[in-house]
Specification:
alpha/beta, Aspartate Aminotransferase, domain 2, Aspartate Aminotransferase, domain 1, seven-stranded mixed β-sheet, five-stranded mixed β-sheet, 37% helix, 16% strand, globular, binds pyridoxal-5'-phosphate
Length: 406
């Protein structure tokens, strides 16, 4: 052996070029977390072939773990025709919504959006996209005539939320679809508070569905992410904008989100059933002025929800957020949240633990716009605890409120 052949590589080289483990011969049942942000090719021809197909794996561009999560949500939202639905995953719900609006709007285009609307989305439209010449109109979607009145010749997107916090307003997706088709606009639906276990807007005419995936899809308050699903041609355009703007989901978060999907029906069905019992019980308390929950017959979206939302042996699934407004003003809302012992004071929704937040603090109330509930309102995101324990906790908190003359 020549001296040259025997020469060992330096310790730095050897540490960097460690032996790679072979690809396993068995298919993993759990989703592998592909953390690699750089991917090698056997030769330049193979690199050209992969890039030519637009299938590159590269940190920001595509990753097998994030793609698996997006495809999984596409299959759940597109249950009726999974082959016609594709998905893209994003670093957060706002990154997902921003990519949708940047892909399908341009300077001079107009968007119609609802009130109430998630505050981050309202801010994106009014504070950011407005600087790039995007025009917007807001309407209470409870009356479709107001939506029709808000349409302009340059309307390109009708934006809706299946369930809008804090009033838990229910969007008439089929009615909005007809208006969108007539206007030549896309119907984009944020279905974060519904999840595909409650409603699949694509089956009712939506073109694209977006989620803050960290809420119910992940379901354990331990990761961030967003996702958009819809027609493959629209999703292909969205992918280009994601690549150019960089709001890519990390593989670790994608793993947690994808794992959460496996228990999504179990969690959401149980949360909806608990929310129904909780809302009905709390509505009877003398300190409560108003309860916003579509499962209650007096809620303006009750009949619509019965038509649009899925049901099972436990009845119709009306979502798992309940907004309670006690008598009294701001102070009553503060006193109610502070008196809770089991329920955590926390923003966000969809995790295993029940959370209470005041819409006045959360992103639900657009600046200058009404949230639809008063200053005393408290939104409960129902978790997986036993319904009796939650009812006892909120009852003792309501019992502790000073009597109010209204
Ligand atoms: C309905 C809705 N849409 C979008 C978002 C934004 O999602 P993210 O916080 O993941 O950016 C949220 C956040 O709470 C939300 O509630």
């Amino acid at each position: 052996m020549s001296r040259r052949a025997r020469r060992r590589q330096g310790e730095n080289t050897r540490s960097v070029h460690l032996p790679a483990s072979p690809m396993p011969q068995q298919a993993p049942l759990g989703l592998p977390v592909w953390r690699s942000s750089a991917w090698g090719f056997a030769d330049s021809a193979r690199q050209a072939e992969v890039f030519g197909d637009g299938k590159s794996a590269h940190g920001r561009i595509d990753n097998p773990t994030t793609a698996a999560f997006a495809a999984a949500v596409a299959s759940l939202e597109g249950a009726a025709a999974p082959e016609d639905v594709a998905g893209q995953a994003f670093a957060s719900g706002m990154a997902a919504i921003n990519a949708v609006l940047m892909t399908f709007l341009r300077a001079g285009a107009h968007i119609v959006a609802p009130t109430p609307l998630y505050g981050g989305t309202h801010s994106l439209i009014t504070n950011v996209l407005s600087r790039f010449g995007v025009e917007a109109g807001f309407a209470d979607y409870g009356d479709l005539a107001r939506v029709r009145a808000a349409i302009r010749p340059n309307t390109k997107i009708i934006y809706a939320e299946t369930l809008s916090s804090p009033t838990m307003a229910v969007a008439d997706i089929r009615g909005l679809y007809r208006i969108a088709r007539g206007a030549g606009a896309l119907l984009v639906v944020d279905s974060t508070f519904a999840t595909p276990v409650v409603c699949r807007p694509l089956e009712h005419g939506a073109d694209l569905v977006v989620h803050s995936a960290a809420r119910y899809l992940g379901g354990h308050d331990d990761c961030a992410g967003g996702v958009v699903v819809g027609r493959p041609d629209l999703i292909a355009r969205l992918r280009e904008v994601r690549i150019d703007t960089g709001g890519t989901l990390s593989p670790d978060d994608a793993f947690l989100l994808r794992r959460g999907l496996e228990t999504l029906p179990l969690r959401v069905r149980r949360m909806c059933a608990t929310a129904m019992v909780f809302a009905a019980a709390v509505a009877k308390h003398p300190a409560v002025r108003r309860v916003d929950y579509p499962g209650l017959p007096g809620h303006p979206g009750h009949q619509l929800a019965r038509h649009l939302f899925d049901s099972g042996p436990e009845g119709t699934r009306y979502g798992a957020c309940v907004t309670i407004t006690p008598y009294g003003g701001h102070g009553a809302g503060v006193a109610l949240t502070d008196a809770l012992k089991l329920v955590s004071i926390a923003t966000s929704a969809g995790g295993t633990r029940t959370k209470a937040t005041r819409p006045a603090f959360a992103g639900d109330r657009p600046p200058g716009g009404g949230s639809g509930t008063g200053a005393a309102a408290v939104r409960f995101s129902i978790g997986l605890e036993d319904a009796e324990d939650l009812i006892m906790d909120v009852t003792q908190a309501l019992d502790s409120l000073p009597e109010s003359d209204g």
